[in-house]
């Protein structure tokens, strides 16, 4: 199901059933009066009632991802928290395409995305079993390692890795499934700039656990500070430690005149991070429909609200073509 509704998000949310959505992924007004647009200074993103409306229609444990401006995201975050959401993290999207808006201001190079969650019913496990929500999709968002073999070192009994009488190995697996997702995301240009500064860095050498180390006592730490480890067998620039969202010509093509378009790859990644397979995503500030197009690409259902009929038309065309 893919649906875009031309209307006020609060009025439209009031018509929806409670506990319906698996996630909310949105790019709300930053309340900066961007390009003189009235919709960017209405105060709707600062109002806890706005986020309370989205909370009501979200399932327990559903995650919310909401972008904000570097100067105003704190007020959006406070409104989200005051509405009853639990603040979980803040993801930074770093990009290299920004330009300073004046001679006495810094060049913008990041946008924060507030990560919050509707309170659970019981434990995470019980909530996931009942609603399918409550956890993030770590494995679906690992930083690609292209299936490289891991560098593995096995522990020996004599190391007493876990203390006297508790021997074992910390080696695990044979195929690299990717690095753990971070709360920093790069665009292509930011990744290139980072690699230019870091240079080409080789893979870490495996640790056998027999290397000289500081003396330690007790069974908790063991007889060695350094324990066997598992390493990614790769080399390259520092950007390989982060997800890099590649830009697409289609993001700005096909008559898309919306002033704050996010890259499709970025929104696909974020939707995948917080939405269970086949889940239903809400974007109450739909704009030109990038979140909807991302949901189509990822196999999610989608409902979006947008006030401006012009942007609704663009969103319908983009999602239909996607």
Automatic annotation (TrEMBL):
Q: Which GO terms describe its cellular component?
A: cytoplasm
Any one of the GO BP annotations:
methylation
The answer, when asked if Metal-binding is one of the entry's keywords, is no
Q: Name one GO molecular function term.
A: site-specific DNA-methyltransferase (adenine-specific) activity
- What's one Pfam family here? N6_N4_Mtase
Concerning SUPFAM superfamilies, the annotation shows:
S-adenosyl-L-methionine-dependent methyltransferases (SSF53335)
Spans annotated as Disordered: 201-227
Annotated DNA methylase N-4/N-6 domain ranges read 22-316
Q: Does the keyword Methyltransferase apply?
A: yes
Q: Which PROSITE patterns match?
A: N6_MTASE (PS00092)
> Which UniProt keywords are present, listed alphabetically?
Methyltransferase, Transferase
User: Which family is annotated?
Assistant: Belongs to the N(4)/N(6)-methyltransferase family.
Spell out the protein name for this chain: DNA methylase N-4/N-6 domain-containing protein
User: Where is the organism placed in the taxonomic lineage, from the top?
Assistant: unclassified sequences, metagenomes, ecological metagenomes
């Amino acid at each position: 199901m893919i649906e875009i509704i031309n209307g006020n998000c609060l009025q439209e949310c009031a018509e929806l059933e409670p506990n319906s959505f698996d996630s909310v992924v949105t790019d709300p007004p930053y309340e900066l009066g961007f390009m003189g647009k009235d919709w960017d200074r209405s105060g709707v993103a600062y109002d806890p009632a706005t986020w309370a409306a989205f909370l009501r229609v979200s399932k327990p444990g559903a995650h919310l991802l909401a972008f904000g401006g570097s100067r105003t995201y704190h007020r959006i975050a406070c409104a989200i928290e005051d509405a009853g959401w639990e603040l979980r993290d803040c993801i930074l999207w770093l990009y290299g395409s920004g330009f300073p808006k004046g001679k006495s201001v810094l060049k913008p190079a990041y946008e924060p995305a507030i990560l919050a969650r509707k309170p659970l019913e019981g434990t995470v496990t019980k909530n996931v079993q009942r609603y399918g929500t409550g956890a993030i999709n770590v494995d679906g968002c690992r930083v690609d390692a292209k299936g490289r073999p891991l560098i593995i070192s096995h522990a020996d009994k004599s190391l007493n890795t876990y203390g006297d009488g508790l021997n074992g190995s910390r080696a695990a697996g044979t195929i690299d499934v990717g690095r753990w997702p971070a709360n920093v995301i790069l665009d292509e240009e930011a990744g290139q700039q980072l690699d230019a500064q870091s240079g080409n860095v080789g893979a870490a050498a495996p640790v056998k656990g027999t290397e000289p180390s500081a003396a330690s006592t007790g069974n908790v730490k063991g007889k060695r500070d350094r324990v066997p480890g598992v390493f990614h067998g790769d080399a390259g620039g520092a950007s390989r430690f982060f997800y890099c969202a590649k830009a697409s010509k289609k993001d700005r093509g096909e008559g898309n005149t919306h002033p704050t378009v996010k890259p499709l790859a970025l929104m696909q990644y974020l939707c995948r991070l917080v939405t269970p397979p086949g889940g239903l995503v809400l974007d109450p500030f739909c704009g030109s429909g990038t979140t909807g197009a991302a949901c189509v690409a990822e196999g999610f259902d989608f409902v979006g609200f947008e006030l401006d009929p012009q942007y609704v038309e663009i969103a319908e065309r983009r999602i239909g073509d996607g």
